[in-house]
Batch of 2 targets.
Target 1
Amino acid sequence: MTAPALAHWAPANEETLTTLLAAVRKWTPFDGDAVLEDVGAVLDDVIPREDDVEDLAERLRGHLMQLVDIGLTNKADEDEEAARLIARAREVPVADVPGDHWRAVGHLRRMAWTVNELVERLGAIRCLKEYA
């Protein structure tokens, strides 16, 4: 009995390897605890301090982008609810954080609710096994 032969393939060129290496270096694994911590910080009864607004907005944007990537990679957009949440997740971070503190908090809360709902939906349709 002979072992199946692997098809011969040419090694990747330097440009392809450089691109792949840059992508691997940039990649960060999904950290569900950090996501829930940031969502909790924004949706808590205690309103985020004005000094924390930009930092929280940046982290929530990152969570939204990562969740959208996870959803699209796993074809979650084939699920109607997930597709709606992915579309909302793409729209919310585009808006600049308002200069007024109260409006900024409202913006953060919309982002946090979107993150929370997307995590729950991706878990429900088994795109995130941590939350399945």
Target 2
Amino acid sequence: MGYFEYLKGTLEPLGIYDLESGVGAGELFAAGLELDKVFLELEELCREAIAATSRSYGIKNYEKILPYRPSYITIEDAQRAITSLLRIRGGSFTLDMLQSTVSGCGIRAEVYEGGTGMSAVVSFPENRGIPEDFDKLKRRIEEIMPCHLNLEYRFTYASWRELMEGLHDWRSIESKAPRWRDVETYF
């Protein structure tokens, strides 16, 4: 239902207007069309103004004002990354806030308490081995984390058990993973 129908429905109970063919009907139709356009624009503005719902120029505008451009593949990834980057703030000391902060670094990362006081461990659960562009990623994480924390990075590699269960002899290993780095990160 457009605004013409809405306006018509609002005025109809009065019974004093000819809403089908009178002079006012054309004006009402024109006003309804213009209101439809205005509210379509407002809907788009509202959608693009909120990071979690923006889909086009809103994402680009958020990227301009944020200190980092998040890496993403889909629009949904961009929305998550921008929302995470907007949560970054100094003085975040709870584990939840640290997790929220590190989630804006552009790759899925997890933070948990280290073995000693004032230490935290950062791991990359969906990534085997050292992530691509790790030096850049590390700088970014260390810039957004509180400076008094001692950060430790943990990386996941394939274990011998995983290799032996998935690859039965050296020939199959060499055919599927010709370099040692490929073997370490195979599974």
